[in-house]
Amino acid sequence: MSSQQLLHPRNLHQGRYDFAALIAALPQLEAYVRLNPSAEPTIDFTDNQAVVLLNQALLAKYYQVKYWQLPPGYLCPPIPGRADYVHYLADLLARSYSGLPTGKQIKLLDIGTGANVIYPVIASQSYGWQVCGTDIDAVAVKAAALIVAANPVLKSHINIVQQHDVKAIFSGVIKGDQRFHLTMCNPPFFASSAEAEAASSRKWANLGKAGQGHQRNFAGQQHELWCEGGELKFISQMITESQLFKQQVSWFSTLVSQQKHVSVLKKLLRSVGAVQSEVIEMRQGQKVSRILAWSFLTPQQQTQW
């Protein structure tokens, strides 16, 4: 069974990678493609350059992105799973419309967009949405802005903004007259550098590359991977801060990696007066992740948004 068989139905990355088509989109990828024991084409996912080239090929073929470069050491995300989050958000928003919401009138805010700017790319190219991507890291902001500027298909759809207050999430980013249909976030999962390194070492061991954990196959800067208190503290702050913008956002959302955090976060949502909350489960092969979404608006208010 393909590891991608349970992706969202609208996800463009169903089944196995079509390496012939990807090589046609990016010929440099061919040098990194090899056959696995089942004689099927693949790449070495522990090879940073191979993973970057795979992403460049996917972005070129499916999203018309011709330039995509990351600063050394920054997170290189697996694109199929990232696309799922966007598609499930589209389903969530579709409840307030007669069909799937498309076009620049739909506004999305991506918290922690990173140097890879992957969520804004997928959202703008899949649905034509207008996306604002934010990050606290000046290097990431510069790299993301360069990707947007270098690709004509992105320039009119994506705006990159630096969050200058490292203790804030929405404050300073959402202006007084701005409204967003959706917010999204892939928060730092770990509570410490040691915790992030331990998880990375386990991943490398599973890939048969024990002892190379410090070289993380998908890289990532400190703020991309961990923060004090981990995802529970980060998302709790996000929920608390979202109260300040309850009339300016139709649906807030975030990924939650650990199931045990969901009940705690839902309790917090009740305490801050969220009118709606929902947990959307996503499956990619054996991996299960979830989106936590909440709103301070009623469904009727959302239809009039």
UniProtKB/TrEMBL annotation:
Its EC number is 2.1.1.181. It catalyses: adenosine(1618) in 23S rRNA + S-adenosyl-L-methionine = N(6)-methyladenosine(1618) in 23S rRNA + S-adenosyl-L-homocysteine + H(+). GO terms for biological process: rRNA base methylation. One of its GO terms (cellular component) is cytoplasm. It is an enzyme of class 2 (transferase). InterPro entries: METTL16/RlmF (IPR010286), rRNA_lsu_MeTfrase_F (IPR016909), SAM-dependent_MTases_sf (IPR029063). It is found in: Cytoplasm. GO terms for molecular function: 23S rRNA (adenine(1618)-N(6))-methyltransferase activity. Its main location: cytoplasm. Pfam families: Methyltransf_10 (PF05971). Keywords: Cytoplasm, Methyltransferase, rRNA processing, S-adenosyl-L-methionine, Transferase. Belongs to the methyltransferase superfamily. METTL16/RlmF family. Specifically methylates the adenine in position 1618 of 23S rRNA. This is Ribosomal RNA large subunit methyltransferase F.
